[in-house]
Amino acid sequence: xxVAFSVTPLGVGEDVGEYVADAVQVxxxxxxxxxxxxMFTSVEGSWDxxxxxxxxxxxxxxxxxxxxxxxxxxxxxxxxxxGLTSKVExxxxxxxx
Length: 97
Hints:
Belongs to the UPF0045 family. This is MTH1187 family thiamine-binding protein. Helices cover 43% and strands 26% of the residues. It is α+β, with helices and mostly antiparallel strands and 97 residues long. A hairpin with a 4-residue loop joins strand 2 and strand 3.
């Protein structure tokens, strides 16, 4: 399973990078395959593993912000591993001349 999610603190002003970094740190310390870009952090693992990481990432932001917004998208495909890499490699292969 791959989950792409975004945690946004509300009520803390426009500069939210330090709060988002708290969430990303939780993901990176989880040991699960992950990737962060400008809009989302993606993490791959079992349902229980991934949802636990998302819950803890939200809690890390919630500890410092009065309100938190969570956007989550999941690709639930049993038996598939290394999807974070293989999905991108497939697209890149189709883009190659």
